[in-house]
Amino acid sequence: MIMFKNFNLPCALNFLNYLEETQALLKISEIENSISFSIQRSNSISLLGLTYCKINQINNYYTHFFKKYTQCLWAKKLSDFGISYKEAFKNLKGNELQQLLLKFVNSSGVTLSLLKDFCLFVDVSFQEGLITYLQELLLSWDPVVEIKTNNSNKEEIVFKSTESLRKLCFEILSKVNSESKPDVQNVLLTTWNKVNYYYYEVFSIIIELYEKLTNNIREEFNGYKILLTFLMSYRRVR
């Protein structure tokens, strides 16, 4: 008998080894279909099926259990990011898949390595994931400000360094392949029109990214560069 409260993989495998292969697979399927859903139970039974099929080289069932096991792993990860674990078990397409990607890249703690794994799991191009992440970083930037009182007894808004944002954006850009560069250019130009007017630092980063990407500078950006340099050095008084 296979128990889930204190699931023991070696013991469960020993139990299955007493059965014929067909009976063992039937037993796993029966348990899989009968358990009330929980990440822990689904993870246990899929791991059992995956391991049993690997040991006995049962390729057709191995694929099924590998998919279920991967879904369970991502269900836990999504839950940790504040996203419903149920999303991992849905066959999302189109707009629903795009919405899940947006939720993921806007979650705290996302890394490029994790994003790559996520894109592989949901069958989205890593390049699409990178471009989406880049745009969301620029649009969702929330400045860290400090309020100081100057010599005239007026409060000044001091924006702290955006170096971490700049560094991550350029790291993303370094992983964009040549085929995706035109898409990134379009996204940067589109994002330019959506950024908060007072976030001069983000406009400056967009220009830097565009220059790095194209090895050129748009003529219209030349004037903006001078203006942004002035605005970022200008004291913002409340």
TrEMBL record:
Q: Which InterPro entries match?
A: ARM_KNTC1_3rd (IPR055405), KNTC1 (IPR052802)
GO cellular component labels: cytoplasm; kinetochore microtubule; RZZ complex
Record domain KNTC1 third ARM-repeats: where? 6-207
Instruction: Report the record's Gene Ontology biological process terms.
Output: mitotic sister chromatid segregation; mitotic spindle assembly checkpoint signaling; protein localization to kinetochore involved in kinetochore assembly
Q: Which domain of life is it from?
A: Eukaryota
Q: Name one GO molecular function term.
A: small GTPase binding
The protein here is known as KNTC1 third ARM-repeats domain-containing protein
Annotated organism of origin: Clastoptera arizonana
